[in-house]
Structure formats: C-alpha cells, structure tokens
From TrEMBL:
Domain Fumarate reductase/succinate dehydrogenase flavoprotein-like C-terminal: 503-637
GO biological process, one term: anaerobic respiration
Sorted UniProt keywords: Cell membrane, Electron transport, FAD, Flavoprotein, Membrane, Oxidoreductase, Transport
Primary residence: membrane
All copies of domain FAD-dependent oxidoreductase 2 FAD-binding, residue ranges: 37-442
GO molecular function: electron transfer activity; flavin adenine dinucleotide binding; succinate dehydrogenase (quinone) activity
Location relative to the cell: Cell membrane
Record field: catalytic activity: a quinone + succinate = fumarate + a quinol
Name of the molecule in the record: succinate dehydrogenase
Signal peptide range in chain numbering: none
Encoding gene, per UniProt annotation: frdA
Cofactor(s) annotated in UniProt: FAD
Length: 639
C-alpha cells in the first residue's frame, strides 16, 4: 500500500502557496553546490527546471535523447499559453482561471494545485517576456490575446502558431547560460534507462549513450523527471515520433505510483489519417477555432464542393448544440461531437471521418491578410501536407490522440512516492484532472520548472544527510546488470516481426478499446488482447544489432515493450473508473444528450497504481479529492 500524503497546505486557498513556501526549508547559497540534481528531459519543463536549479547554484546534470535540448517535443506546441493577466479587461482573474481549469478538468484534479497554477500564470508571462520571447502584440505594443476552448475570456498569449518553439528558445537560452557557467552538465543523445534506489530514496540513474551504446552510471541527491507524455501508446498521435513512456514505466517499476493513466486527451482538430502506413498525425491548433467555423453537410449523400453547399445545407453542429461556447467548447466535447456526426454518416473526405474547419466567414469579415497574419505557419503546414489552400477551401480535420493527463503521482511539492524523485510537466499527473484546457500545458510546464521545483527541491535536499556515495556502490552495479539483462533478453528473441508493426497493432487495440469512448466490454477485450500481443513481442520480435553500439532497433524495442505493459495499465484504470468524466467517456454513463456523467460519490479520487511485480496485478490506491474552495458543479457549455 502506498502512502499518499499530498502535503496539502492548510488555510484559505488564496494564501496557500505563499504560506507553504514560507514553511519550506531552504539550502543556503554556499551549500547548494554540494548537491547534485539530475534533470531527465529538456523540454519546457526540464529546460526551465534545469536552468533555474542550476542558476541557484546546485550541480545539475540534464539529459535528453535528442541531439540538442531545443529539439524536445515542446517545440511543436502551437497555439499558446494561458495567463490570467486580464489585459483584455474582459473580467479575467486568478479565480476565474482556477474555476475554468477545475471545471474543464471535470473536478478530477486537486484544487490546491489548480489554484497555484492559476496564481503563477501571470509571472510566467513576465519571465518569458524578459527572456525576449516574441509574443504577438497589438498595434500599440501591448501583448495580444486570443481565446481557447472552455472559456469566455481571451487569456491566451501566443507567438503565431509556434508558441512552444519560442518559449523553448527562451528556456533553452537560460539553460545554455547555465551550461556555459558549468552549473549544468548537458548530456544529449542519452537515454535514461533505470533508477538506483538506496534505502528507499532515489540515488542515481543508469543511462545509455545512444551513439556509442555505452552504459553509464550517474549518482544523485535528487532526480527530476521531465520526460513528457505517453500519447504514442496509441501509435498514431500528434506527439513527436520519439515521445514514449519508458522513463515513467521504469520509475513505476521501482516504486513510483502511476496516477490516472487512462486520462487521455483526444484533440478535435488534427489532419485526418490518410492511410495505414502513416506514422504520426499533424495537429491543427485549437486557436484556429477562434476564426474557423466547424460544420458538416446536413445531407448524408452530399456530393457538392464545400464552397457550393449553401448555408441552409450546412450543419454548424457545435454552434447549434452549444450556443454559448459554440466552436470554442472544450476539446473533449468538440472531439466527441465530431465523432458523433461522422458516425451519423455526415463526415467528409475519403474515409468519412472528417469535418470542415472553415475560414470563409472570417476572411470575408476581416480580410485574408488579417486572418493569415494570425495563423500563417499553420496554414502553410496544412497546405504542404494536403495540397489544399485553407484560405480557399475549408480544412478537413478529425480528432486525434494528443495529450496525457495521467502521469507519475506527485505531492504538492511535485515529489513522487519515491523520496528524492520529482516529476514535472506532462510527466506528472498534474493539474488538469480528466481533461486539459488548451494552452494550459505550457503554463503548467513552466510553472513547475521556473517557480515550483526550484523551491520545493531545496526543502527535500536540506533534510538529506550528505554521504560519500559513488557509482562504485553495489546498488549501481546491480541495476546496471539488470539493464544489460533486459537488453540481452530483447536481442536474443531473434523473431520475424518488426517492433513497429507490433506497436501499430497495439495502437489499434488502444484506439478501438480504450479510445475516444470506452465500455466495460471494450476494455475487457483490450485487456485480453494486449497480453497476447506482448507474448508475440517476446517470442517473435525482430531486434537487430548489438547493445554496445548505435542501435535504434533496440532503442525502439525497449520503448515498445514498455508501451505494451503500459497499455494494459491504462485499460485497467479505464475499466475500474466506472464513471464518465472529462475525456474519459464510459458509454454506460452519459446524459441523454451524450455528455459525460460523473459519479462523485464513488469516484472523486485520483487513482494511483502501485507495481506489485512482474505478472502481478497492480494495486489501486486512492487519493480522495476535496472540493472546499469551489463546490462541485456539473459542466455545462450550452447555456
Ligand atoms: C502538436 C502539439 C501542439 C501543442 N500545442 C500546445 C499549445 O499550444 N499550448 C499548450 O499549452 N500545450 C500544447 N501542447 C502540449 C505541450 O506541447 C506539451 O504538453 C509540453 O510541451 C510537454 O513538455 P514537457 O517538458 O513535459 O515534455 P517534452 O517537451 O516532451 O520533453 C520531454 C523531454 O524528455 C526527454 N526524455 C524522455 N524520456 C527520456 C529518457 N528516458 N532519457 C532521457 N531523456 C528523456 C526528451 O529527450 C525531451 O527532452 C501541444 C502538443 C502537441 C503534440
């Protein structure tokens, strides 16, 4: 049984973070260089954490598997980052951002965390501006804003459609400064494969140099996982091809609780899949829903070009079904409605699984240049992929796996159930509950990295007694041997089937059985099929090459092996959560209009899974959720 002490602050929520910080123990400036912190990941959460912790004077070693920290997947983020600055004077506030986020997540997040996130949001923008991040500006020079789904204010700051890239450049510059100052030692093209736990605390990691294959040991006083999300368990997703779950699964196997693994966000506006051999999907940012109107033809056998279909024969289904929020309903609602109209036979495109996102009305009203200036690179990207110009003909879009709200369980200090091991960014189960509102991930990654972890890690380190542990310790040798055994086991399979095809099959199982909608029967079926596919992997996978060299075949195989175990954990969680909430739609629990129907009496908790050993069922632990500041309410985006 895990001990889930969330270390939540007491007192009014408005003062909670400030009071909590005041109680935390500090490490004095002169002592900081005695402590070594390993940061695994250099995306927005990892780069901001490593740079900030390094700047404080701790010794930091930062790892990523790309050839440069600035190639982390965060670079793909498009539409924007939220902050309750109220520059639009449209009634925004910390409280309103807190309410929107809690409601958007369908009350399956800790309210103390969500409030802190809203509170820190404004400082993030100041930090980024001071780093030179080129946010879009109004004519008078003020930072511009736009809307994202699930809100009635304009609080999203953006750099056209490349917000993630510009924010990452800001964090990367800060990181590079610390690399030059030698407080951060950067390890690129290196994959962390396992963790060394001594006396219950994390004390190091084992890594593999992806160029030479060399296995290395690294000693630490604390480890911060900033390893991103696991949407690629579905094979097709909007995530970068290399995003994976291995760093989290291996921490889970060493004792870190895994929280809400089944909460997966399906984004409504991706370019539809075009064939079986596609390896990833391309997102069209939610920001496009500010100016794009979503519709399908009213008649099933419509054959006319979209521009020839008159208004009367167009079904603007979101605007009709949700008059208050229209096209800006939250992502789970938009995604389910798109699937619904396609299931009714109204979908467009060769597969019938597509809907239109149409800019004609905005172009007529504002002019093509004004619209293009907001979304330029997104339009270009769409045109390059589809050979259609979205200013002339509507985009075709369809829902795709995009973001994972689950991750390692962390307390209010962002520490996992393994002392000394922290998780930040998409890697933790975080603040988004059962559904993340758009533009809130970048906000959380940077709140964690710039403002929370640099403070809370000191509290942990100050309580540590310094010792002279080195990588010669027997615990390191033992974990290293286990890492080598795992690689040798994979290399000895000598089967016939590519690990890519096994991954693709797993993705299909996940999409069909644990996808946009789930049922008890579909999940049970998934739980039957995944172990069979795992058997196939361990008996018939073709993994070439040797361990001690560059070996991408083995790298990939290790990740697929972890996805197979993880897919099972996801289905198990989805089956046990016998309610609908946010993105988790169990078909058995819906309102007559097809909205998610929560069961607060039985499921107002975070599900935290505990590893019990190879082949054993994991144990479900529960962290109850309390709603004191904001009482539970039913989500309603209609009126
Ligand atoms: C196409 C797209 C558009 C998006 N647009 C937005 C948006 O507009 N606004 C918004 O708020 N959110 C957006 N998101 C979500 C957001 O981009 C991500 O949630 C966020 O960037 C994740 O950052 P991260 O730091 O947690 O992880 P990542 O940026 O994924 O970084 C993970 C890091 O971990 C490293 N790593 C992983 N495993 C290991 C290992 N075993 N060993 C060593 N290193 C490892 C990687 O090398 C990498 O450096 C978007 C997501 C996608 C897919």
């Amino acid at each position: 049984m895990l001990t889930l002490d969330a270390k939540l602050p007491q007192g009014p929520i408005e003062d909670a973070w400030t009071n909590h910080k005041d109680q935390l123990r500090l490490v004095g400036p002169k002592n900081r260089s005695k402590y070594k912190v390993l940061v695994i990941g250099s995306g927005l959460s990892g780069a901001s954490a490593a740079a900030s912790i390094g700047a404080m004077g701790y010794q930091v070693e930062c790892f990523c598997f790309q050839d440069s920290p600035r190639r982390a997947h965060s670079i793909a983020a498009q539409g924007g980052i939220n902050a309750s600055k109220n520059y639009r004077n449209d009634g925004d506030s910390t409280w309103r951002l807190f309410v929107d986020t809690q409601k958007g997540g369908d009350f399956r997040a800790r309210e103390e965390n969500v409030y802190r996130l809203a509170e820190l949001s404004t400082a993030i923008i100041d930090q980024a501006v001071s780093q030179g991040v080129p946010f879009a500006r109004e004519y008078g020079g003020k930072l511009a804003n736009r809307s994202f789904g699930g809100v009635l204010v304009e609080r999203t700051f953006y750099c056209r459609g490349e917000t993630g890239q510009q924010l990452l450049l800001g964090a990367y510059q800060a990181l590079e400064e610390q690399i030059a100052a030698k407080t951060v030692n950067m390890q690129t093209r290196t994959e962390v494969l396992d963790y060394v736990i001594i006396d219950g605390k994390v004390r190091g990691v084992i890594s593999r140099d992806l160029v030479t294959g060399e296995i290395k040991r690294h000693v630490a006083d604390a480890v911060v996982l900033a390893t991103g999300g696991y949407g690629n368990v579905y094979y097709l997703s909007t995530n970068a091809k290399n995003c994976n779950v291995s760093a989290l699964m291996r921490a889970y196997r060493r004792g870190a609780g895994f929280a809400n693994p089944c909460f997966t966000q399906i984004h409504p506006t991706s370019i539809p899949a075009s064939g079986d051999y596609q390896s990833k999907l391309t997102l069209m940012s939610e920001s496009l829903r500010n100016d794009g109107r979503i519709w399908v033809p009213r008649n099933k056998d419509e054959k006319r070009k979209p521009s020839d279909i008159p208004e009367a024969d167009r079904y603007y289904y979101l605007e009709e079904r949700y008059p208050r929020y229209g096209n800006l309903v939250p992502r789970d609602v938009a995604a389910r409605n798109a699937k619904d109209v396609c299931d009714q036979g109204l979908g467009v495109g060769p597969t019938g699984y597509g809907v239109y996102l149409d800019f004609a009305a905005a172009i007529e009203q504002k002019g093509v240049d004004a619209v293009k200036s907001k979304y330029a690179n997104l339009f270009e990207m769409y045109e390059r992929i589809t050979d259609d110009d979205p200013t002339k003909t509507p985009m075709r879009i369809f829902p795709a796996v995009h973001y994972t709200m689950g991750g390692l369980w962390v307390d209010y200090n962002l520490m996992t159930t393994i002392p000394g091991m922290f998780a930040v960014g998409e890697a933790n189960f975080a603040d988004h509950g059962a559904n993340r509102l758009g533009a809130s991930s970048l906000m959380q990654c940077l709140a964690d990295g710039y403002f929370i972890i640099p403070v809370t890690i000191g509290n942990y380190l100050s309580g540590l007694e310094k010792d002279n542990l080195t990588t010669d310790d027997e615990h390191f040798a033992k974990v290293e041997a286990e890492v080598r055994d795992h690689a040798n086991k994979m290399l000895s399979i000598k089967g016939k089937r590519s690990t890519n095809s096994i991954h693709r099959e797993l993705g299909k199982i996940m999409w069909e059985h644990c996808g946009i909608q789930r049922t008890e029967a579909s999940l049970k079926e998934g739980l039957k099929k995944i172990p069979e596919l795992r058997e196939e992997f361990w008996n018939n996978a073709s993994i070439l090459g040797v361990n001690e060299s560059m070996n991408q075949s083995m790298e990939h195989a290790g990740r697929v092996a972890d996805f197979l175990d993880f897919g099972e954990l996801m289905c198990r969680d989805a089956l046990l959560r016998d309610e609908s909430c946010g993105c988790h739609l169990r078909e058995e629990h819906q309102t007559p209009e097809g909205e998610a129907k929560r069961n607060d009496e039985d499921f107002a908790y975070t599900a935290v899974f505990e590893y019990k050993g190879e082949g054993e069922e994991p144990e479900l632990n529960k962290e109850p959720l309390n709603f004191e500041a904001l009482p539970l309410m039913t989500r309603n985006y209609k009126s």
